[in-house]
Amino acid sequence: MEWNTNDWVEHSKFGVGQITAVGENLSIRFLKEGEKMLVKTAELKPAQPPSPDFQWPKARSGAGKVRVSRRPPADFDHLHDLFRASFPGGFDDPQFAVKERAPIESASAEFVTHLGRESFEQLMQQQNYADVASRAMASLQTTNLVFPMERIKFKTAVVANPSNHERFSNTLFQLLYGEADEQSRFTGYCDALASFGIPKWPLATYFWFLASRGEQMFMKPLALQRMADSVGITLEYRAEPNWQTYSKLRDVAARVEAELQSRNLNPHSRMDVQSFIWAALQMEEGKYGGTKKKKKSKSETPSPAEVTEVAES
Fold first, then answer.
1. Is residue 213's pLDDT more than 80?
2. What are the pLDDT digits (tens) for 217-274?
3. What's the predicted TM-score (pTM) here?
4. Three-state SS for 8?
5. For the residues of 208-233, what is the DSSP string, one character each?
6. Cα torsion for 237, 243, 247, 253, to the nearest 10°?
7. For residues 313 and 311, what is the distance between their CA atoms, to the nearest angstrom?
8. What single string gives the DSSP state of each residue in 87-155?
9. Given the DSSP bridges, would you call strands 44-46 and 15-22 parallel, antiparallel or unpaired?
10. DSSP string, 131-147
């Protein structure tokens, strides 16, 4: 059936909602579940609004908004120069291998050891869902990619909550090793995170990033929004993990890799692309390697960029 913007529909899982956009997929605002993006083939039935004069409540000033940096886009040539200054040998520089590549490759190898396909399948066959959750938690602690607060929330919502072990295990296994299309697998996993109360981009992309050895991108919202602006791509960012934004993230990664190669910087893998994004932007902000710009006086307030990293993760 063909759907149009503003049509009211009913979904067996999410309930009644109104279509807000029709494109490659359907964007639907559900009464109880909020905004969701569904494939056009999703099973939907025509529905009626809650009342003939129904209007969506207006958001309170500042409520539900994502604060983003208003700084101008970072100049990619400048980011390249900063990176080259720190690593003259580029991605072949020994210091880059030690400081950037080795820690991520180590975390990826450890993840594959404990939750690679064979190990994961064995745990699923044994219905040892608690061990899956524990191993996932251990993996989160091998890097500093996910903020400590988000790791605590994951531990509380998943590891310490047996009722969520099975769904987490099933949806994570499908995301990493399932045979369905990537959009369905990613959406299913993100829906599970939302049901646990932790719909966060780092948690949505961290395990896929490690399991794929960097081929699937890791989303750190502030950094990737800035890099998207730098290479002229609209990320179409929304705070809740969704396939449309993730697809755009892949476009950003491909563009960054092409820009690097055009400047004779050849990443060994997408892990190097990720490392360039994080390192170069930290260099531009004067924060790379533990160094920071001059300390603000007490009268100065944090910039939007400083508060966004925590708010958006």
1. yes
2. 999 888 999 999 999 998 888 989 999 999 999 999 999 999 999 999 999 999 999 9
3. 0.71
4. strand
5. HHHHTTTSSPP--HHHHHHHHHHTT-
6. 70
7. 6
8. -TTGGG-HHHIIIIIHHHHHHHHHHHHHHSHHHHHHHHHTT-HHHHHHHHHHHHTTSSSS-HHHHHHHI
9. unpaired
10. HHHHHHHHHHTTSSSS-
Encoding tokens for residue 102?
A: 């080795």
In our burial notation (b when 16+ CB lie closer than 10 A, e otherwise), range 65-101 reads eeebbeeeebebeebbebbbebbeebbebeebbebbb
pLDDT band at 137 (very low <50, low <70, confident <90, very high): very high
In angstroms, rounded to a whole number, what is the distance separating the alpha carbons of residues 227 and 284? Answer: 12
Which candidate, 248, 251, 250, 227, places its Cα nearest to that of 237? 248
The CA dihedral of 116, 117, 123, 125, to the nearest 10 degrees, is 180
pLDDT bucket at 95, cuts 50 / 70 / 90? very high
Residue 188 CA to residue 83 CA, distance in Å, equals 37
Cα(253)–Cα(269) distance, rounded to whole angstroms? 11
Contact 140, 313 (CB under 8 A): no
Distance CA 106, CA 39 (A): 36
Helices (H) and strands (E) in the chain, counts: 13, 5
| Under 8 Å between Cβ of 66 and 73 | no
Sign of CA dihedral 102, 104, 108, 111: positive
Q: One-letter amino acid identity for 124?
A: M
Cα angle for residues 305, 210, 164 (degrees, 5° grid): 85
Q: In the chain, what is the straight-line distance between the N-terminal and C-terminal CA atoms, in Å?
A: 37
> Tokens 């708010």 map to which residue?
311
